[in-house]
DNA sequence: GCCAGTTTAAAACAGTTGTTTTAATCAGTC
DNA sequence: GACTGATTAAAACAACTGTTTTAAACTGGC
């Protein structure tokens, strides 16, 4: 019996080789990057032969693309769903803080609370810096839809907010959210007690309050 | 005569091989990453032999460290100097907006207005994602000194701001600034006309106004 | 047993990597 | 000229890369 129970992450050795490859590839690509992960690394972690990744996926890059297809849609859907939920739940015009908090949680949720550590963040950061994905699948499938949905929602919730300021306000919000993810990622690598005060729940409370203040300052007409 | 006038970036072929290697290495490491740049790439770009990088620096990693030593101190010094300048120029307590604007300009200045494109940003992003630098030279030499200087300055400028909120406020500010750099970096790779509205001058004006509003909301004592 | 078809294993391929070794060339100084 | 030391060049090294090829093991049906 060639059960091949490797020491690494093979929680279910009964699953097929193809599924195991997808599992360990997402893990290793996130940890070491696309170029830093050899096919022999993948084969060893999945407990299979080096030829298997070519057999099942037709190459290393195809496997990489297969991993992304799922995650991108997951990100976009949860973010847009969180916006729609706030807009539909309240009868009239929703509270600004509710919109901000719902979006913030949906934004960083799938990227931090995952069990096996923040894989998606690392994967995404690496892909943005040196891409191995076809063209602008990133901006088209996630960034643009999310941005436009949030901008429309914000314009609806804050009618007094000047239209020209809406993109900038979303810019500031997303900047803070991404930075939250960065810091969370750093905490995993270097365990710095000085970063301990930035646990996500506390940070989200702050971002909501801080951003709401900035927005209402614009909406108040103090600045053009 | 072996003038070796390569087609690539050798503006001054009269400079020594060591200096040319430092020059092209910073360029190539930023563009393709540490692992993505071979010693043969460096040698070709610098117009020298493959053995030169080992001869002058004792290896690829030593060359990489040498590049970082300078840039890290440059970043820290310009940022802290911008804070000290604001604190010393005004007689009494400086204006909050002045502090924010000065720090913001110093923060993103060396990272965007450089001639040969935003090399330092790419270099930094790559290093944060998969480090090739000894230990925590990054946090010790730049992040921690800059953070503490800014937090002290902010506490002095805004005495009414609750002490517990100071780190969070700096967190939001830096999150927005780093996001500014990200977007600027994206504009270089993908020329998206939708991102054209985020030119740095306009974004800095916004970040100052937005953050000042958030800070004064805390300082106003509305929220504990 | 025999025979498809699918899946796995091992070896081989051609190419690249960082580093070292060996030789050659260059500058000065006598 | 010859000698010394620093610098450059070319070749060789061992290790690793993604992919392909070849052969073996397995599956279910008859």
Report on the biggest sheet of chain A: none
Q: In percent terms, what proportion of residues of chain A is strand?
A: under 5%
Strand runs of chain A, count: 0
Any idea what the shape of chain A is?
elongated
Helical content class of chain A: 55-70%
Order of helices and strands of chain A: HHHHHHHHH
| H/I helix tally of chain A | 9
Distance between the termini of chain A: 75 Å
Structural class of chain A: mainly alpha
- Rg calc of chain A: 21 Å
Unreliable runs of chain A, pLDDT <50, ≥5 residues?
1-12
Largest interface, counted by CB within 8 Å of the partner chain's CB:
A-B, 45 and 45 residues
Topology:
Two copies of one chain form a homodimer.
Chain A: H1 17-32, H2 39-46, H3 51-57, H4 60-89, H5 96-112, H6 119-129, H7 137-157, H8 166-189, H9 200-219
Helix pairs in contact in A: 1-2, 1-4, 1-6, 4-5, 4-7, 5-8, 5-9, 8-9
The structure holds a DNA duplex (30 and 30 nucleotides).
């Amino acid at each position: 019996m060639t059960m091949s129970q490797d020491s690494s992450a093979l929680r279910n050795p009964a699953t097929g080789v193809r599924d195991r490859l997808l599992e360990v590839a997402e893990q290793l690509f996130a940890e070491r990057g696309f170029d830093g992960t050899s096919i022999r690394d993948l084969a060893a972690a999945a407990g299979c032969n080096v030829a298997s990744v070519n057999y099942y996926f037709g190459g290393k890059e195809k496997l990489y693309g297969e991993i992304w297809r799922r995650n991108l849609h997951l990100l976009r859907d949860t973010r847009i769903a969180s916006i729609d939920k706030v807009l539909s739940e309240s009868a009239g015009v929703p509270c600004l803080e509710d919109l901000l908090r719902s979006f913030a949680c949906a934004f960083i949720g799938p990227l931090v609370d995952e069990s096996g550590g923040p894989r998606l963040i690392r994967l995404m950061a690496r892909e943005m810096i040196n891409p191995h994905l076809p063209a602008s699948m990133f901006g088209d499938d996630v960034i643009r839809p999310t941005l436009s949905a949030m901008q429309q929602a914000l314009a609806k919730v804050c009618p007094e907010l000047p239209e020209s300021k809406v993109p900038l306000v979303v810019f500031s919000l997303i900047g803070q959210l991404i930075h939250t993810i960065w810091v969370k990622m750093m905490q995993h690598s270097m365990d710095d007690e000085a970063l301990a005060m930035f646990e996500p729940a506390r940070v989200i409370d702050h971002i909501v309050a801080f951003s709401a203040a900035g927005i209402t300052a614009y909406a108040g007409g103090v600045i053009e």
